[in-house]
Amino acid sequence: MTTILVVDDEYSMRRLLDLQLSQKGYHVVTVASGKEALHTLQTVVVDLILVDGMMPEMDGFALSEAIRNGSEVPILFVTALDDRDSKLKGFEVGVDDYVTKPFDSEELHARIQAILKRAQKIQSPVSEMTRGELTLNLTARSVVVAGKRVQVTMKELELLALLMRSEGRAFSREELLAHIWGEHYEGTTRTVDTHIKTLRIKLGPPADQYIHTVWGIGYKFEVVS
Q: Longest C-alpha distance within the chain, in Å?
């Protein structure tokens, strides 16, 4: 059974999500704070985490960043923060999708299904790809640069894999957005730029040899010695 961890400081919201998700057949674990969530993740294996953005002590952004330091488990932000900067910040710290409150329960479920489907697809057997000093393994959800493992989010992994599979091809931002986030994603192409920027930072200086900006178009992967 799929296990979903709900992190929200409001009891009524935890209760609502627990009820709605349980009715859809998920096993739901609820906690009231970021610290409780981190403690729970040490003992409970979860398939998806729903995180509220505004919580005391450790907010959703800090929690997501802490989770990403050691895990690639999918994270879905469910928050009242609906401004553009908050959404961009969420993607920068590694969340996979972003839903604003109040939300439609069926839309939320559809987004959950889409995230879980992508995660399952990534876990399916796929051959390892090595380009230069960069190795990506979708089965292990791992990226290794010059022998050192780099922690990446699921979206970053998908984005890098797509570029690597089509080495030398220039993708427009719109193409990358459609491939990775889906045609019905409501965000802007800035989402792609943000993820590329984060990937480059995580890969370090070698990123300049692999991920290239194609002015007027978008991005491509090509090994340049």
A: 56
